[in-house]
Design goal:
Elements: H1 2-26, H2 31-48, H3 57-75, H4 82-85, H5 101-115, H6 122-134, H7 138-145, H8 149-165, H9 175-197, H10 208-223, H11 230-243, H12 269-282, H13 290-303, H14 312-325, H15 329-341, H16 345-352, H17 365-377, H18 381-394, H19 398-413
Helix pairs in contact: 1-2, 1-3, 1-5, 1-10, 2-3, 5-6, 6-8, 6-9, 7-8, 7-9, 9-10, 9-11, 10-11, 11-12, 11-13, 12-13, 13-14, 14-15, 15-16, 15-17, 16-17, 17-18, 18-19
Length: about 425
């Protein structure tokens, strides 16, 4: 199990790097072959590492990527001297140099901005970026975007076809396109983190490797002065603040621990400080984003020494601000939960009754869980249990299912 987790972590950490480097060598027209090559490398590690993990796993992946480059050259009938002849900027870059840290980061930046190219349909951009940068499967993308897997497959196919037909270049955007493209890039990173922080994976509630990957990508963005703005710093703040709580979200058996029952001494202070400082920097820029508001909500939770001490009134105001910027079912549900915590169940119900669980796709169980919380607040135990049963039927994650079953069983004993 430990080796599998290590491989999964490295795959997430290396996938975007390897795809980006190979695309820089072979071009976007060979994207499908490149993705197959990366998958082959991952499959090879899965088999070879069963008995023994290499002393330097990341170096193993880099070497494997280089070897796959040679294989691809043969498959594409490329000239043996092709690499020496290729130009990537004003001068030729030696093949080995492409695996240096700065060149890898440059390739990754090019990849994520290419995936968010305006010639791609807006609906296709995020799915395409999650696939190429995060190595997400179609089902994972579907869960992150609240879509059906079939819809995601169509979007990925359409995006790849557009890349070829529109002859999209593998490059960073010019200054006049930067703001719009950066907005989409930050959204992709945000979604990668969310899938790690509250995963739809059938076994794991928290996937730290995805959270770490999102933090790493945001740090790469912030290395470039032209990408620094209020939104990019606010996103980094949000990711740090939420990452600080990861160690308290599950127990040693990977069971879910809700915010009310988390051991707050396990919240990681260095990340909290890093996030707080990043939010201060974000507030020094003229632009304002939803990430500013979400980071402010996270700080309110962190400031509370106990769950009872939470400033729910302030959090409600922040969620209402968030709703003005970005109205969706998840935010509406969050507002309903806060209203229940403020002992305002009727106001919460007015929100709940307007929502459709189908809008949440694979996360529809959240709607039924909130409805159960509403009826429990009213003291209507049977109603609460019935909605918990519906939530249990719809939840795909084992840890979440176990958590909901415990809640239901506790009510049955009352």
């Amino acid at each position: 199990m430990q080796n599998e987790q290590l491989i999964d972590h490295l795959f997430r950490h290396q996938y975007g790097k390897m795809v980006s480097i190979l695309i820089r060598i072979f071009g976007l027209k060979n994207l499908e072959i490149i993705e197959d090559a990366v998958q082959d490398t991952f499959a090879k590690a899965t088999i070879q590492w069963r008995k023994k993990v290499p002393e330097n796993p990341e170096a193993w992946f880099t070497t494997a990527a280089k070897n796959r480059v040679i294989d691809l050259l043969r498959k594409l009938d490329a000239d043996k001297n092709r690499i020496e002849k290729m130009n990537y900027s004003a001068s030729a870059i030696a093949f080995n140099n492409l695996f240096e840290k700065e060149e890898i980061q440059d390739s990754e930046l090019r990849m994520i901005f290419t995936a968010c190219h305006p010639k791609l349909d807006a609906k296709d951009q995020i799915a395409f970026a999650l696939k190429t940068i995060g190595g997400f499967s179609s089902s994972e993308i579907a869960a992150a975007l609240l879509l059906k897997p079939e819809t995601v497959k169509k979007r990925l196919t359409r995006a790849k076809q557009t890349v070829i037909s529109k002859k999209i270049n593998f490059e960073l955007p010019v200054k006049k396109q930067l703001k719009a493209r950066l907005h989409n890039v930050l959204e992709v990173i945000y979604l990668i983190f969310n899938e790690g922080f509250h995963s739809n994976h059938n076994k794991l509630l928290v996937r730290k490797e995805l959270c770490g990957e999102a933090l790493r990508l945001t740090k790469i963005i912030l290395t470039k002065e032209e990408f620094r703005c209020g939104a990019s710093y606010a996103l980094f703040a949000l990711l740090c603040l939420n990452s600080a709580r990861l160690g308290a979200k599950v127990d040693e058996n990977f069971n879910s621990i809700d915010l009310k029952n988390q051991d707050r001494t396990k919240w990681y202070l260095p990340l909290i400080n890093l996030g707080t400082n990043a939010l201060e920097k974000a507030n020094g820029y003229p632009d304002y984003s939803t990430y500013h508001i979400e980071a402010a909500i996270a700080i309110e939770h962190i400031k509370a020494t106990t769950f009872r001490d939470t400033n729910w009134k302030q959090i409600l105001e922040l969620y209402k601000q968030l709703e003005q910027h970005q109205e969706n079912t998840i935010i509406s549900l969050s507002i309903a939960v806060v209203l229940i915590e403020l002992n305002q169940p009727q106001e919460a119900f007015l929100i709940i009754q307007k929502l459709e669980p189908e809008a949440l796709e694979q996360r529809s169980y959240l709607f039924y869980g909130v409805k159960a919380k509403y009826y429990q607040c009213l003291g209507k135990k049977d109603k609460a249990i019935s909605y918990l049963n519906v939530a249990i039927e719809n939840v795909p994650n084992f840890a979440e299912k176990t958590y909901l079953i415990k809640k239901r069983d506790a009510l049955l004993k009352v």
